[in-house]
Amino acid sequence: MLNDVTICKIFTFDAAHQLIGHNGKCANLHGHTYKLEIFLKGPVVGPDYPSEEGFVIDFAELKKIVKEMVLDRLDHAFLAKGNEPIIETLKETNSKIALMGFRTTVENLSAYICYLLKEAGLPIYSVKLWETPTAWAQVMASDIPEKGPFYRVNGGCDYE
Ligand SMILES: Nc1nc2c(c(=O)[nH]1)N=C([C@H](O)[C@H](O)COP(=O)(O)OP(=O)(O)OP(=O)(O)O)CN2
Ligand SMILES: [Zn+2]
């Protein structure tokens, strides 16, 4: 039996959002440099274990998957629930919109990313998403229900 190892790779992306109806400054259109920590957990495998590589997964491979599935979609985008009036103007100016369909709190975004990567077949352990240097949310893959994350069930909405 192989022992599991947890590995982590860190990414950043810049994005804007607006929490419509929030009773505070985040009701304004504003942006963040998000820091995204992806934790994977699994045995150190290779095609002919024990491999010379000694990887859970090649960080380069992980980077490629996260870039394609997350960063290309979210980086320098407006993260939209879909009810933000600014969307019309952004469309008119061909500005990048990532239509999430849920309220773009750091809780919901981290659950979304974790679910996406889990569905992609990665041995995902957790996703930790920093919205600011002092605020983050972490979602454990094992806490995501089979039918999907909580934002799917209740809209993840603290207002509507
Ligand atoms: N539980 C949550 N609370 C808040 C969220 C969220 O996603 N989950 N989001 C916001 C805002 O979007 C805001 O970007 C973050 O707010 P805050 O941490 O208060 O930001 P500050 O820049 O004021 O941080 P300081 O380090 O305290 O200066 C609001 N709440
Ligand atoms: Zn914010």
TrEMBL record:
It is an enzyme of class 4 (lyase). InterPro entries: 6-PTP_synth/QueD, 6-PTP_synth/QueD_sf. Its cofactor is Zn(2+). This is 6-carboxy-5,6,7,8-tetrahydropterin synthase. It comes from the Bacteria. It catalyses: 7,8-dihydroneopterin 3'-triphosphate + H2O = 6-carboxy-5,6,7,8-tetrahydropterin + triphosphate + acetaldehyde + 2 H(+). GO terms for molecular function: 6-carboxytetrahydropterin synthase activity; 6-pyruvoyltetrahydropterin synthase activity. SUPFAM superfamilies: Tetrahydrobiopterin biosynthesis enzymes-like (SSF55620). It holds the Pfam family PTPS.
